[in-house]
Design brief:
Elements: E1 11-12, H1 30-47, E2 55-58, E3 61-65, H2 72-79, E4 85-90, H3 95-98, E5 107-110, E6 113-114, H4 124-145, E7 147-152, E8 157-161, E9 163-166, E10 169-173, E11 179-181, E12 185-189, H5 190-195, H6 200-215, H7 218-222, E13 226-227, H8 229-249, H9 256-264, H10 280-295, H11 302-305, E14 316-317
Parallel strand pairs: 1-11, 10-12
Antiparallel strand pairs: 2-9, 3-4, 5-6, 5-7, 7-8, 11-12, 13-14
Helix pairs in contact: 1-6, 6-8, 6-9, 8-10, 9-10
Bound molecules: zinc ion.
């Protein structure tokens, strides 16, 4: 199970996420894809927490709500749930994993907030409100109290001790093939996972690029107007360069970044991007140059060592 979908460009997302697409959601390998994204996201986020400008204790857990499926009863049956709200995915090695949480455990309460106390509203778009409220409550508890408490359907109460992470939520998006980021959220399309052959290092490279956009707060850098081509290209170059540091800190091979760019290029991932996002070959070359810089800094301490792109005086054209 997964979060809401939104129309995304490969790169920075400036608009708030929209409602999920209508239609049935098959239950085959979605959960495996969710777990993969959460696991890679946690590894990147936890390892880079000391560097991220906005860090917060996290737990590596994604919840889901059967009511966001086209057929909630079928979803409950397919996942073996005894209620609507359940664990969608647990990030490998995360605090939630260490606390023994498993996918498809049915959740009755998050902290002192019973699931049953949150009303469901129609139409379907409204039904996403509940799961986002619960997910936010979970993240808030982890960030503020350093732990989150879940009550399971079998009566067990599980306390998850939070660990440092970048304050960014990772979401698998069923709607589009690409990826994007806001200040607080990284999204990757399910199609992009397929185009990267399910290869963990390449997926990590794409998520690291998006995490770089979030960490560098490109949403704010580009402002509220229409960003210029030059300004978008600047943020893309900066995210490409920082992504190799983010990968290295998490123990991934930074050369996965240029490999990812070369692999996605032929799939038209940049069709809306050029000239804003640049040619794949240029981007790969710039990443390799940054990897050479990184080789001289084995601690990959990008908070101190990363050189930002020169700032632009007018990155956007004000809205009329
Ligand atoms: Zn980008």
């Amino acid at each position: 199970m997964r979060g809401a979908a939104a129309a995304l460009a490969f790169g920075l997302v400036l608009a708030a996420p929209g409602p999920p697409p209508a239609g049935a959601q098959p239950v085959d390998d979605l959960q495996a894809a969710d777990a993969l994204v959460q696991s890679i996201g946690w590894r990147l986020s936890h390892a880079n927490a000391p560097q991220c400008p906005r860090a917060a204790p996290g737990i590596g857990l994604l919840l889901a709500d059967a009511q966001t499926f086209a057929d909630p009863a079928a979803a409950r049956a397919a996942y073996g749930l005894t209620g609507d709200v359940a664990v969608a995915a647990v990030a490998a090695g995360s605090p939630a994993d260490k606390a023994g949480l498993l996918a498809n455990m049915t959740i009755m309460a998050v902290g002192d907030l019973p699931v049953s106390s949150l009303p469901l509203s129609a139409p379907r778009q409204g039904s996403w409100d509940r799961i986002w409220a619960l997910q936010a409550r979970l993240e808030q508890a982890a960030a503020q109290a350093g732990e989150a408490v879940l009550t399971l359907a079998d009566g067990r109460v599980i306390t998850i001790k939070a660990a440092p992470s970048c304050a960014v939520r990772f979401i698998l998006d069923d709607g589009r093939g690409n990826a994007g980021a806001t200040r607080m959220q990284v999204r990757i399309g399910r199609k992009a996972l397929g185009q990267l052959g399910g290869d963990e290092a390449l997926i990590a490279a794409l998520l690291a690029h998006e995490l770089a956009h979030a960490a560098l707060d490109h949403e704010t850098v580009l402002g509220t107007g229409t960003p210029t081509v030059k300004a978008v290209r600047r943020t893309e170059r900066e995210a490409d360069r920082l992504s190799v540091w983010i990968l290295a800190r998490a123990g991934y091979d930074p050369e996965a970044a240029p490999r990812m760019i070369r692999q996605l290029g032929p799939h038209g991932m940049f069709v809306t991007a050029s000239p804003t996002h640049g040619k794949s070959s240029t981007r790969a070359r710039e990443m390799l140059a940054e990897i050479a810089q990184l080789r001289g800094a084995p601690d990959a301490d990008w908070a101190r060592r990363f050189r930002p792109e020169p700032a632009l005086s007018s990155p956007s054209v004000p809205l009329p």
